[in-house]
Design brief:
The protein is an all-alpha fold and 350 residues long. The chain has 2 domains: 39 residues; 240 residues, MetI-like fold (Orthogonal Bundle). 74% of the residues lie in helices and 0% in strands. The protein contains 15 helices and no strands. Helix 7 packs antiparallel against helix 8 and helix 10 crosses helix 12. The radius of gyration is 25 Å and the shape is globular.
């Protein structure tokens, strides 16, 4: 900047003035945000104090008053220790993975631990065993339902997406035609449409004996939607692997499955890892759309808790801001996981 002032004084002073005005504007905005969020805010669940503010400050008391229905939905009150236990265990699992450097997250043992944890969490939430009273799936809600929908649909869609990607690249028409048809049909339909079809059309098409709760139908829609998009991501990764490597593996005597598992898939997945992480983040956010079919996940629990309460309804902005921060933290964790895995795999190639 000093050199610019010496050589071109007019341009230098203009840039200096613009920078100063920008800093002043940023400082003013920061002051207003802090004044609203902290200095004039109400943190106690006191509706009268919040009304006296007249929106000059934040009413964080709405979170203290409504944290249970927002975080846990309409899960039975006397059994809410079960979803709270699941949330605490989820946080501890993420913390242990972070302390371990995320080194074993995508290994066979890591996936087995994640799958086992999902089964145990489902059993604890559902009940019916070990003396726990059963809680129907339709009573689930809040953050546990968001995490359950995300993990279940993601884990179920990964092998389906891989099979679709391999089938689409197959020279056999009886494999690639159904795969192409499924992928293009699902990708051409909005997720909301798939959710409505799973919620209202699926019960008509299947026998009554095979009827599924709404949670499972929504999970099926999310799984099919995720598999179609993930299959295209994986297909792009498969196309980055030169055909000569498969031919060389065949010459060495490797079977087709051995070639895919040991030669093609590691390189393909490494190439599209950022895209897969981005897809996972998108799926986590898309899980909030199940609210349109009557499931009260995290955002649905917020709407349920504030929609029928005229006292706390005016402070929906603070509640949505808190829920947005929860989503941001989860997405940031997934992004961090993707960067760690990318660094690990990059080191493994050198």
């Amino acid at each position: 900047m000093i050199q610019l002032l010496r050589t071109r004084p007019a341009a230098g002073w203009m840039r200096l003035t613009a920078s100063g005005l920008g800093l002043l504007l940023f400082g003013w905005l920061a002051w207003r945000v802090l004044d609203w969020a902290l200095w004039q805010a109400v943190f106690q669940p006191d509706a009268m104090a919040c009304q006296a503010l007249q929106h000059r400050g934040a009413c964080w008391g709405v979170l203290a008053e409504k944290w249970r229905p927002i975080l846990l939905g309409h899960y039975p009150y006397e059994q809410q220790w079960r979803p709270i236990t699941v949330l605490v265990a989820s946080a501890l699992l993420c913390l242990s993975a972070w302390l371990a450097g995320w080194q074993r997250v995508v290994s066979g043992k890591g996936l087995a631990v994640l799958l086992g944890y999902l089964v145990l969490a489902t059993g604890l939430m559902r009940g019916g065993l070990a003396g726990l009273p059963p809680v129907p799936f339709d009573a689930w809600g809040g953050l546990p339902l968001t995490l359950w929908l995300f993990l279940t649909s993601l884990l179920a869609s990964m092998p389906l997406a891989l099979g679709l990607a391999l089938a689409r690249r197959s020279p056999r028409r009886w494999l690639n035609v159904p795969a192409i048809t499924f992928i293009e049909l699902v990708r051409g339909v909005p997720l909301v449409t798939l959710l409505f079809m799973a919620a209202f059309m699926l019960p008509v098409l299947i026998p009554q004996d095979l009827a599924m709760p709404m949670v499972w139908r929504a999970t099926l829609a999310l799984t099919l939607f995720s598999a179609a998009y993930m299959a295209e991501v994986m297909r792009g990764g498969l196309q980055t692997v030169p055909q000569e490597q498969s031919e060389a593996a065949a010459i060495l005597g490797l079977s087709w499955w051995q070639t895919q598992r040991q030669v093609v898939l590691p390189q393909a997945l490494r190439a599209v890892l950022p895209a897969l992480v981005g897809h996972g983040i998108g799926l986590l956010k898309d899980s909030s759309l199940v609210m349109v079919v009557g499931l009260h996940e995290l955002t649905g629990g917020l709407s349920l808790s504030l929609g029928g309460d005229p006292v706390w309804r005016p402070y929906y902005f603070e509640a949505y801001l808190a829920v947005g921060c929860v989503y941001a933290l989860m997405c940031l964790g997934l992004s961090r996981l993707g960067r760690k895995l990318e660094q690990r795999w990059t080191k493994g190639t050198h």
